[in-house]
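pinging the channel bc i need a second pair of eyes. not urgent but kinda urgent?? the chain im working w is below, pasted from the shared doc
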Amino acid sequence: MERLECPICNSLQRTAMTHTEHKDKATVEYSSRRKRSLHRKRLMDIDKSASPDQLPPGTPIAVYSRVSSEEQVHGYSLDAQVNACNAFASQRKWKIVKYYSDPGHSAKDDKRPAFSQMIRDAEDGQFKAIIFHKLDRFSRNIENTLRYFRDLNSWEVLLASVTEDFDFTTAQGRLVFRMMALFAQWYLENLSAEVVKSKIEMARRGIQNGPVPFGYIKDKEKNQIIVVEEEAQLVKAAYELYAAGNATDQTVADFLNESGFKTRKGNKWSKDTVTDFLQNEFFYGMVAYLDELWKGRHQPIITKELFDRVKEMRARHARRPRAHIALNKVRQPNLLRGIVCCSACERPLRIQASLRHGYYVETSRYRGKECVYSHGRARMDFLDELVQDLLRKVHLPENWQKDIERLVESMDVVRKVETRRLEIDGELRRAGRAFVDGVYSEEEYERRRMKLIAERDCLTIPDGAKALEMGMQLENSGDFFDGATTDEKNKILHLLFEAIYYDFDQKRMVRFKPLSEYAPIFQLAAPFSGWTEKEGFVFSTSGEIIDM
């Protein structure tokens, strides 16, 4: 076959192509070869590693332990892992200098807090080996395992398993390590597939995955789902009320609350919970999973005809024009979204637009909650100006840099952050148990887990150097704030505050909660920023919540 020459680089090709096409193809081929080469290099790095048994007595080492939420419920113990690692290290007379533990975290996630800190400490040279009970405690992803092994090897940090023999000085030991890493990943992928397969099979057999809705209970002894007659009557009445055409989700929520019954989680009914309630196919005898429906084994409470009437009425309501979403309404910039809260119940205020003004409103009633300021509302532009005035008042004393480290050390922010982290770990474990017990659905559990993890990741302990940097940013925030766009202002506020609290009676901001790293700076600024007790500003000594 005749080959054609590239006119630029003079290479021979089987088909005619421009030099750009040839160059792009070569780049892709090089990238692919590069990836294969890096993977081979990671495997070769194992061949160059020493064995943990070669470490002398007194070697500083770290212990790592991990359980997922479901494993913890089924009896996998962090303490048992740590005890086994302690005995393993004691036999070899190694010195344990650090313990790292990730309760409630999956091995497929390499962003585990303690794990990430351990890798950073390893790079800093704080220990010479990491020991764990089993390789799948460290990671169940082959690429992550090899990548971290390569990095640790370059830092002269070894891996050691209590239950598996990793002797990297022999071909057999290296093979065992590779096989165990591959098996750990296979187990995770197979487990995920098996869980989905099992849930699909249960749904096909008419068995509900997870908790049952209001109107039913599970009889665990008989392995049956039983109708609760008194609740079933309310379910029928709620569906009939909505199908009649004059009710809304909030109307139905009020009706259910007036009946004295709570949701399965013990909360008042809200507009949001009723939205799901009125679209649950389980009530007419079906079981849903992954957007598919199967006939359930349980007794229906309502008919398919009534369910379809409600569905049609919801579609009509969705098409119906509403006054508060008129095309000519004033669209207000949302400066305080996600930050401004009610001073009484401390729940976020929601935004309500109208034809002339935007408002921040207290909406606890619509969420099935109670608040003394229920239905309270305040003009958005009024609250926005209050917050901007707050930032304009920020002023630090002349020698604030000298005082900051002393103040950081004296505050109990560190203790509060560490306490909250432990509380979140406990909440994650309880959420995992609730999921396995069927109290939480898979979606509810994942939403709860991600919310807790996000909160924990935001918990930071201030240090002197960081506080100095924060002080300079805060001192100039007022000037920058005035010239920023609304989105930029909102981002600045999110960088400074967790929440700002508005009192509907006093018609002013009464306190704010700065992020922990800014707390010492606000503490210093208090006496110099026009915030005095005479004006109603009172600062807490901890700096956690500042009352104004």
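so The two ends are 84 Å apart (CA to CA). and The chain has four domains: 4-37, 48-191, 216-320, 332-411+462-548. — does that match what u expected or am i reading it wrong
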